[in-house]
Every structure is written in C-alpha cells, then in structure tokens.
Amino acid sequence: MNKAVLASAVALAVTGFASTSAMAGEKEAKGGYSYFRGGFEHVTYDEKYPGISSSVTVVSPVVNTGGLYYVNEMFDFSLEALATFSPGSAEENWYDSKGLSQTNKYQYIRASTNALLHYKMTPEWRLVAGPAFSYQTHKRFGKESYRELPEGQHEFFTNTWEETSTDIFLDMGVMYDTGTLHNESPWHYKFSAIVGVPVWSYTTNTAAGLEDQTFYEMGYRGALEAAVAYRVYPGVSIGGFVTATYENRMESDGVIVTVDDKRYHAVVPEGDTIHYSAGVQLLWSF
Question: Which is it for strands 75-84 and 89-96: parallel, antiparallel or unpaired?
C-alpha cells in the first residue's frame, strides 16, 4: 500500500513538472512575433553654418522588417532593419545673407539596423536599450548657383556629389508592446519613446577635393512610434504604424584641405533631420 502511494506521488510530481515545462514551452512559442512594414517617409533636412543655410523636404517609400523574440519572463529581444526603397528627389535651396544663393536636386537614402534588449516591468511595459547601426546618404546633383566664386577659389561642388554619414548609436527608452499575437483580445498595440547618442560617427563627401577626408562629429536623436494591428487569422495580424524621429548632427571637427596649392578649412555643417513615416504592417507568429 505504501509503495503504491509513493509511486502515485512520484507520478504526480513528474506529471506536474512535465505540465509546467510544457506550459512554459508553449508560452515561449507563443510569445514574440515577426513583422514586415511598408510605407512612406517624409524627410526634412536642414544644414546650418554661419552665414549659410539650406533646407529640403523629400518623400520616399521605405520598407522594414523585424521581430520580437521571447527570452524568458523577465527579458525579450527585438531586431529591426529599415531601408529606403526607390528614393524620391526634391529641390534643395541654399541661402546666404543676400537670399537664395544656390539650388540643386537632392535625394536621401538610409539603411539602419536596431537591436534592443527589453526588460519587462510588466508583460507589456518594458525598459529597452541597445545599439543601432545607421548609414545615411545625401545625394546632390543638378546644381545652379546664383553667386560667383571669388577669383581663384576652387569649386568643390560640381556634377554629382554625395555626403555619407555612418553612425553607431546607443539607444534607450521605454516601450509598451502587447508582446504576443495569441492573447484573448484580437488587438495588438505597440508604443515606444527612445533617445540615442552616437558612440561612433563620421561623415565623408565625394566632392572634388574632399573625397579623401573623414569628418568626425557628435549629435543626438529621439524617436516616437505607435502601431496597432488586428488579428485576422490565428497567428496573423494586419494594421498600421506611424513614427516620428528627430536627429541632430553637430558641426564636425575641421580639416585643412589643400587644392591647387591653396589651403581651405573644411567642415561638415550642423544638420537637423526630421522623419515622419506611416504605412501598413503584417505581423505573424506560428
């Protein structure tokens, strides 16, 4: 009789442990999701230097994909990649103390990858932090100048030239994320507020006379995001998103450039970039 009771107790304990493990495995399998987004990005880019400023606004399609990955009850991990798709073009205007001094065509292209570790204060509210890798290109062509250069001064900007910034940011902030597509409610919500500073940042320019130079600078950025999706099939949701980002690039360290035996002091001016984007998203988790 005692042996039978003991055997039953052991079987119950084993069954309970297996049940708990199965529930944990099921929770892990259902936690997290993958997504694909497509939309349009409205970008305003301004440069400022004493006595000179520029401004341009351009709209381009963007795509991004990523996912939220369940680690355990305390942590999640997310990864996202974004890229400009078929960049649009616009006219950039430059101003000096006398008014409009130059126009040129402008295109903006960017690619970025963001990785975040989520500390879950609740299943939905999270503190997030992690690195972001950013590559931005400002392409200019079709220049028309309304000012004559001083006699003998080198013309740096002709034909087509590209200014490219490469950055590694450290981002941190707060996020609300439903965290799964398998809740009783068919709705999925996400909101985030994130700030970042570059830990490594430099800019290059292909303009004649500047192509061998590297300019180092600092800056900061902040981003807001809101997204909602509705479950249309078990493990599949569709919806929309909006984002807003502000990024400041401070004026770079100066370098001395020698062209035709003349020395010039060159810098990358302070720049402000404002992004607004909106579009549709597809989420899945099986």
Answer: unpaired
